[in-house]
Write a structure and sequence with these properties.
The protein has 197 residues and is an alpha+beta fold. It has 5 helices and 13 strands.
Length: 197
């Protein structure tokens, strides 16, 4: 999230402007934050994760979305665009525009140097207020690693998957993410090199 924001705006004004804009923005605590474009590696990883979910959810009463499905956290008023979303229940939307999802089951974010701290901290704090959310997944792009937070009652349990031939099980939607597929065509920087943006 960029450090500078526009002046306070209402949620209604944000949505009206966002639906006309060619650029995506997040809405947090009355302020609108422009979202930066994603790198090639970020797009490869998000696309690979979406493709895995979509293939495994085909033929079931489930859906997967990538990049452009806005999510609203009703309890905090935040609007944002996760990299990948999965759900296996009837989707609920904020209004008749059917462009703002209220009940994601799984959210996947691809980490980058500019968003990593935010994705782990404030953004996850908002996401935890989603009653529907069961699993939150962070995928690194400069190293082969997936961090998996799973809701267990009132607590969140963190696990990590990093072996090249391993796979992450997403139990809430009965899917798996094989690391080999998630990182297909991704080349990692040499030790000491600058990470992907």
């Amino acid at each position: 999230m960029p450090p500078l924001a526009l002046p306070y705006v209402t949620p209604a004004d944000y949505l009206a402007a966002e639906r006309k804009s060619a650029q995506k923005s997040e809405y947090i605590n009355g302020h609108v934050y422009a979202m930066a474009g994603a790198s090639r590696v970020h797009n490869l990883i998000a696309g690979n994760a979406f493709a895995e979910l979509r293939a495994q959810l085909r033929g079931r009463s489930c859906e997967a979305y990538v990049n452009d499905m806005r999510v609203k956290v009703e309890r905090t008023g935040m609007y944002t665009y996760p990299d990948v979303i999965g759900l296996c229940e009837e989707p609920r939307f904020e209004d008749e525009n059917v462009d703002t999802l209220l009940n994601p089951t799984v959210i996947i974010e691809v980490l980058s140097p500019s968003t990593e701290r935010y994705d782990r901290g404030e953004k996850f704090a908002h996401y935890r207020r989603l009653e529907s959310l069961r699993e939150y997944i962070l995928i690194a792009q400069d190293i082969r690693r997936i961090e998996h937070s799973r809701r267990d009652g009132d607590t969140w349990v963190l696990t990590e998957v990093s072996e090249p031939d391993s796979a992450l099980v997403i139990s809430s939607i009965s899917c798996t993410l094989p690391l080999g597929e998630i990182y297909d065509r991704v080349e990692f920087p040499a030790p000491g090199a600058a990470p992907h943006a």
